[in-house]
Description:
The protein is α/β, with parallel strands linked by helices.
Amino acid sequence: MISVVIPTFNEADHLSLTLAALVPAAVDGLVREVVISDGGSTDGTLEAAEEAGAKIIFSAKGRGQQLAAACAVAKGPWLLILHADSRLAVGWETIALSHIRQYPDRAGYFKFQLDDPSLIARVWEMGVALRCRLLALPYGDQGLLISKALYEAAGGFEAVPLMEDVGLVRRLGRKGLRALDGKILTRSERFRQGGYFGRSLRNWSLLLRYLMGADPARLVKSYD
C-alpha cells in the first residue's frame, strides 16, 4: 500500500537504521516498496540500500529533484517521504494505517524528536511543535504520509535544492495536513555542530527569505 521514498547523498552511516525501522511494516505488507533516489553517493549508501532490497534510482543532486523523481516512479497509492537520517519509532505502522483508513484526503506528519538527551534538544522539539501548530509548517525531517492522488493534486515536489518540503505543505494548507500520534527520531549531529541557537536563527532567516520570494538555489548556499 505504501511506497517509502528517501533521497540520499552519502548517507551510509544513517540509512541502515532508517530502513530497519520499516521492516515490520514490510513483513505485514503495508510497505510495498522502498525507493531510494540517490544524488551521486560515493560512500556505502547504495550498498546499504541494496542490502535492504530497496529500489534505487539516480537523479541530479538536489532534494527536490530527487524526491520528484522517486515519487514519479513509486507504485503505491500512498507515499511515505522520509529523510535518510530520520527513523520512525516502533508502532508507526499502526498509526499510518489508521490515518490511511480515516483521512485519505489529508497528509500526515510525525512528531519531531532528536537523538540528543540535552535540555536544549527538548526546547528545540517544542519549538518545532509550536511552528507546526501555529504555522502548519512541518519540515521534511518529520516525514510525510500522503496519498499519491493528493500529492499530485497539490503539484508534487518542485525540482529545487531547498524548501521543497515547505513548498508542498504550503500548497496542502492547514486543512490538508494532520499531526500523527507517533514520533520520528532525527540525528542531532547537524544541529549540534552549528549550535542550536545559531541554527535556529539561520533556519528562520532562510524560511523568511523563501516566503518573501527568494530563489531556493541561492538559499541553499547559505544552508550548506
